[in-house]
Each structure stands twice: as C-alpha cells, then as structure tokens.
Amino acid sequence: MQEETDAPQGGGVQTIAQPILDKLNQFDVHTRRKETCLECGYVGIMGIEEELHPWWLSWWCIALITIVGAIFMGAGLVIGGILIGLRYFGEFDTRVLVCPSCEEAYEQD
Asked: Checking CA distances to 16, which of 26, 65, 100, 107 falls within 20 to 30 Å?
C-alpha cells in the first residue's frame, strides 16, 4: 500500500493506488510536490489538514493594530495593509500535512 506507482519503469503513465486516492479525496487541499513520510516511507502527494499563521498575522491582531495605529499614529491603515500583504504573500505559514498511507500528521514550515 505504500507504493505510489504501478506503472512500468519505461517512463509510462504513473497512477496512484486506489486506497491512497480515496484517502486523498478526504482533503480539500493537497501538496503540489511530492513529500516523504518519515513514519512509513510513503513518497507522494499529501493532504493539507490546516494552515497555521503566526499570531501577529491573525485577523484580530491586524484589526487591532490597524485601529490603534489609525487613532494614535495616523499610519494604521498602511501598517494594516502591509500585514494583510504579508499574510497572503509571505512565507510565514505552517502547514499540517497528513500522510494518506499511515495517516500520520506533521507540521511543515
């Protein structure tokens, strides 16, 4: 069950085993590249269970900084805009990946 392909070595079309596909279909988001499970040795696409953001990029923190900054500093909207840009375009997220073979979950920075 840990092997990903059933295709010949000659460069043919590779398919993912049906039990792995069934488990991957349970997730809304998947990895774009092949990952390796350190628990069972599976190599392939994994499901993303959730994405974790740092506390300073949470919506409540961005709203608080924007409001307080707008009242006291006058630059709150600029700071809030920068934080929103960092939240969407920055590489600060931690993803929780789940192996479809052994269902082990681990965090990936």
From this structure: 107
